[in-house]
């Protein structure tokens, strides 16, 4: 518990810092899981799923666009109907399930097309069930990523009281550390995890991302007793509708 009756101001400041550190640690793991796959996914689709270069690029582009568009939905839901805490937790579990599917498919030879042989001019395409598994894993991950992108940073910002000078300063500092954590997770993803994917196998690459998002869930839940959770304010569309109705009347 973040309570210190001898000095409430210092206790509040310390609590806010502790909360923000937890959120920043979660962001390292979350962005590692996201960029570990997104940065190198074209190679996986071409080399193991036998996509053409253009189809691989389109698939990765659609995956990225879907993830970032769904961030708008995640932000809307966390602000209007649920807390950022709930949206993050649900989204992280969804992304975890998507990564588990991709890891299982990458590990099992029966769930991928057979490797190309040097004597064949064309490679065997995926079956419909293999394609369904691939896209289920990708778009479950995209759904989870979107929810996380729309809720984790706001959740961190909520830990500071914007009504005080210290709270506003703390919030500004938090976003600096949050971006640093985002970059740190991305750096690990595009160096260490990509090396694992290229040299040890994609099952280990997807597995690393799966472990990272699982760790982010554990860290996030461990910080639950510290968090301040802002109550949802309802849909802004409803507020706009009421205002227009009152104006007409």
UniProtKB/TrEMBL annotation:
**Membrane topology qualifier:** Multi-pass membrane protein
Single GO MF annotation: transmembrane transporter activity
The record's Gene Ontology cellular component field reads: membrane
Question: Where does the UniProt annotation locate this protein?
Answer: Membrane
Q: Which InterPro entries is this protein grouped with?
A: MFS_trans_sf, POT_fam
Query: From which domain of life does this come?
Result: Eukaryota
Q: Give me the segments passing through the membrane.
A: 32-53, 60-78, 84-104, 174-196, 202-222
- Keyword Transmembrane included in the entry's annotation: yes
Does the keyword section mention Chaperone?
no
Coiled coil segments of this chain: none
Q: What are the record keywords, sorted?
A: Membrane, Transmembrane, Transmembrane helix
Identify its protein family: Belongs to the major facilitator superfamily. Proton-dependent oligopeptide transporter (POT/PTR) (TC 2.A.17) family.
What's the protein here called? Answer: Protein NRT1/ PTR FAMILY 4.6
Q: What organism is the protein native to? A: Carex littledalei
